[in-house]
Every structure is written in C-alpha cells, then in structure tokens.
Automatic annotation (TrEMBL):
The keyword DNA-binding applies. SUPFAM superfamilies: Antibiotic binding domain of TipA-like multidrug resistance regulators, Putative DNA-binding domain. Keywords: Activator, DNA-binding, Transcription, Transcription regulation. It comes from Siminovitchia terrae (Bacillus terrae). This is MerR family transcriptional regulator. The keyword Hydrolase does not apply. Residues 1-69 form the HTH merR-type domain.
Length: 255
C-alpha cells in the first residue's frame, strides 16, 4: 500500500507517516520501478504497535527504542498493552461513576460526603515522574557536567546567562495565567533550552520535571530565587504546554 492509501485506511495524516519515516520509526522500502514507498503487512503491524503505544502516552523516541530492542516480542507487547489499556479503562470507569454520582448529588437525588466527592481521584503516582527522574538522574547530570567541562569559561558564562534570562522572563510573567500565550511562549524557550543543552526530553518528561519543581524543595528553593512562586508557576505552565502539545498530536493523528 502507498502512503496515501495507508493514511486513508487508518485515518491519520500523510504528514504523520512521513514524520515516522524521517525519524526512522517506520520506514517502508521503496519499490525499485516506481520509487514510491510501499507498506507491507509487516509494516502495518508495526504501525499498529506504534499507535497502541501512542494511545498509552509513549513518546516517539521511547517507542523507537522499544521496537528496535533485540528483546522486543510483538506478542508480549500486545499483552502488556492490553493490560495497560484495561488499567486505563478502569480509571476512566471510576471517574465516570464519580461524575454520575456528583450529578445526582447536585440534583438532590443523593447526598455525598466530602470524602466521597474525591474517591475517584488518585494522586499517589505521577505517571511522568519516573521518566523525568530517569532523564534527570545521575546519567543526565554526568552528561551535562561533561558538556560543561568541554566548554570554555566564556561559553559556560553565556549559557548560564541565557538560562537566567529565561528564568527572569518567566518570573516577570508569574502573576499571569500559566496557559496564556505569553507564558506558553516563554516556557517553550525553557523547553528548547533544555533540549538544546541537556538531551532530548519528551513532553511527558517535561511535564514531570515541572512537578519536581514543586515536590522537591531543592528545586523550589533555587527557582524561587528569581521570584517567589516561580517554581509553582513554571510547574503549571509546563503542564499546560505539554497538554497543548498532546492535543496537537492527537489532532495530527486524526483523533
């Protein structure tokens, strides 16, 4: 099947398939006589795997690593994906039930205690924190230190000043809504700065890092030197930025 046929079959954009090809995630072979890329049944099975992982919130880089792993087993992956989707459905069912009971409470049909109003929520785990901690753990620190060691004093000073300038810009906006256009633009500068200097970070990891700014007092103390409440503002702005990018991703996939 040609790329346009695959896009129409699945309901995603040709641009998305081209992007998967460009980053080496899914690259069908070119047919010698026509020069067009053609998707085999095996390619479509791989694409199905990619879309399952995307539905579960996996970043493209992580999906590529998983699919390229010598130990990757398609059947095992399907069973794991089923388990994760069932867990996701269970959480959604709980939230739907909570909403239905809340509607009944609002209409006077039942009475809910304050505790019952929040029984469907679970904040015991941050699904993005593990990836963020992995990316910002000892290996990430070692990489950043190695990069800094290879810079001249002037280069280090310039990078530090650029980082501080972004902090100051965000501090000046911390009284604004974290989802405002100004906040979005400024927090994108922070996202780009991290990616340019300390590796490649998914939107999920970026969101998780923002959570660490408020959950880890060391982050909070350092960031709030530029203005009280900045860590909280950055956490919320990073979450808004990541959520917006996720909506854009789903739109590209035709969701």
């Amino acid at each position: 099947m040609k790329v346009k046929e695959v896009a129409e079959l699945i309901g995603i954009s040709v641009r998305t398939l081209h992007h998967y090809d460009e980053i080496g995630l899914l690259s069908p072979k070119r047919k010698a006589e026509s020069g067009y890329r053609e998707y085999t049944d095996e390619d479509l099975e791989t694409l199905q795997q990619i879309l399952f992982f995307r539905e579960l919130g996996f970043p493209l880089k992580k999906i590529k690593d998983v699919l390229n792993s010598p130990s990757f087993d398609r059947q095992e992956a399907l069973l794991l994906q089923k388990k994760m989707l069932l867990e996701k459905r269970s959480r959604l069912d709980q939230m739907i039930l909570l909403i239905e009971r809340t509607i009944q409470h609002a209409e006077g049909e039942i009475q809910m205690t304050n505790k019952e109003k929040f029984e469907g929520f679970d904040f015991s785990q941050n699904p993005y924190e593990k990836e963020a901690r992995e990316r910002w753990g000892n290996k990430a620190v070692d990489r950043s230190n190695a990069k800094l060691a290879g810079m001249s004093g002037e280069e280090q000073e310039a990078m530090t000043e650029k980082m501080n300038a972004i902090y100051r810009k965000l501090a000046a906006l911390r009284k604004e809504a974290p989802s405002s256009d100004e906040a979005h633009s400024a927090i994108k500068e922070w996202y780009d700065f991290l990616n340019d200097n300390f590796g490649s970070y998914s939107f999920e990891a970026f969101k998780g890092l923002g959570q660490m700014y408020v959950s880890d007092e060391r982050f909070t103390k350092n960031i709030d030197q530029f203005g009280e409440g900045l860590a909280k503002f950055m956490c919320e702005a990073m979450a808004a930025f990541a959520d917006k990018k996720e909506i854009e991703r789903r739109s590209d996939l035709g969701d």
